[in-house]
Structures are given as structure tokens and as C-alpha cells.
């Protein structure tokens, strides 16, 4: 187990190094000068040059990369070009919107997917199974931002049950949860469709095992066999996908946060790109990459604990 853990840690470190090189390289080659953008079209060349020197943009790419990575390791994400405050403060303010949104969407996805996935497996080949598979195929095919706009039109504009966007802050918890409900549903529906199909496939495969047939032969009913014997073994691949979905929900809510005007990491990233605030873009993207890689590592570790064959 120790050797497996060390291999996974080395893989995690190598992934983060490669990701940092890709993120830094891609963002640095984007057209546009942050200093010129901040000073405007009529800025004097001397003022632009002075601002570039102040922001450290005249240093070589290697020096800037090493300075940036060294800051990330020590928790210093740099200072925003636009807001002139530490990037860590900006991320800390926004993470309390994005993280609860991801957890809320993951909870909704699980609550929706598990029952309908089990229903489809238990009713395999019948009308309920075909209905679930058709609905999940639609959920996978339709983009979540379209779901988001549809939810806004129905529940905010037509019915006026909730607001169309914005976030009141956690000082009013019920209002905050209400503001996150429609975005969470928009994020959860496609993920619930994927999870339900995986749940169905895993449970059907488990129901075909010999020990399940033996339990049925001993007189146990179908529901008892599913709950007592099949479900636990079928959850292994489902939980793996569930862990991966959390990292996707945390990193993939950029469009949804902009649709609902939520002050989360996605909106911060979008604003930083439009403002050419490179240090905010680089640090935020690397934080999201780290979240994805860390969750993947924890899922692999948990899977290896459950199934020792994977350690080889």
C-alpha cells in the first residue's frame, strides 16, 4: 500500500508541474499587454513601460514562472493587476460561493441519480427503464447553460418564485441557499444523468453475479437482494464517478456563475480574462487544477483501499 501511495503522490506532483507549465505558457502567449490595457488606448509609452516594470512584466518568462510557482507553494498567489489586492484574498472571498454551489449540486445529483438508476436496473427492459434511459440521454445531450436559462425563464420570470441572479451573502442563509438553488439544479441535471446511467449499468452487472442468483434461489425477494447484496458492490464504480464529479462541478461552473451573476471563482476568472489580469487567471486556474487532481487522488486512494487488486 505504501508503494502505491508513493507512486500516486509522484504522479500527482508531476501532473501539477505539467499543468503549471501549460497554464503559464498558454496564458502568457495570449495577445494583449496588461499594462496597456489598464492605462487605456491613449496611454503614453513611458507610462506603459513604467507600469510594466512595476508589475514585473519585463522579467524573463523563466524568472516569472519560477516566482509564480514559488509563491503558489508558499501560499502567496501574487497581487491582482486590476484590483491591487492579494489574489489569495479575491479567491478566499469567491470560494465561499463556488464551493457551496458545487456541494449543493453534488447533493442534488446524488439524490436524483441513485433512485432512478436503481429503478432502471430493477425494471430492466421495461417501460420504466426505457423512460429513464431516454430522460438521461436528454440530460446529457442538452448543455447545462441552456438548462440554466430555461430555469430562469420559468421560475424567475414567469412564476417569480426566486430571483433571476445575484447572491445576498451568507448573512442571510435561507436567501443564500435560495439564490444557489437554480444554479445548483442547472449543474446537477447533466451530472445526475451520467451518474444514473452508471448506477444502472453497475447494478445490472452485479445482479448477474452468482451470489445474487444464490440469494434469490434461497427465497429472498428482488428488493431484499438489491438492498442487502447487490447495491453495496455496485456502489464502487458509482462512488468513483461521484468523486470525479465534485471536482468537475467545482471547476466547471464558470458559465453557470455568469448566467446567474454569482460572485464565485468562475465569474472572477471570466472578469480576469477580460481585464487581462494574468496573475488572477493563472492562480485561479491552478487552484482549480489542484482541486481536480487532489480529488482524483483521494478517489484513487479510496478505490485502492476497497479493491486491493488496484494496488498492483
TrEMBL record:
It comes from the Bacteria. The keyword Transmembrane helix applies. Its main location: membrane. It is a multi-pass membrane protein. It is found in: Cell membrane. The keyword Membrane applies. The chain crosses the membrane at residues 101-121, 142-162, 174-196, 234-256, 285-306. Gene3D superfamilies: MetI-like. CDD domains: TM_PBP2. GO terms for cellular component: plasma membrane. Residues 95-299 form the ABC transmembrane type-1 domain. Pfam families: BPD_transp_1, BPD_transp_1_N. SUPFAM superfamilies: MetI-like (SSF161098). Keywords: Cell membrane, Membrane, Transmembrane, Transmembrane helix, Transport. InterPro entries: BPD_transp_1_N, MetI-like, MetI-like_sf. One of its GO terms (molecular function) is dipeptide transmembrane transporter activity. PANTHER family: DIPEPTIDE TRANSPORT SYSTEM PERMEASE PROTEIN DPPB-RELATED. Belongs to the binding-protein-dependent transport system permease family. This is ABC transporter permease. It comes from Pontivivens ytuae. The lineage of its organism: Bacteria, Pseudomonadati, Pseudomonadota, Alphaproteobacteria, Rhodobacterales.
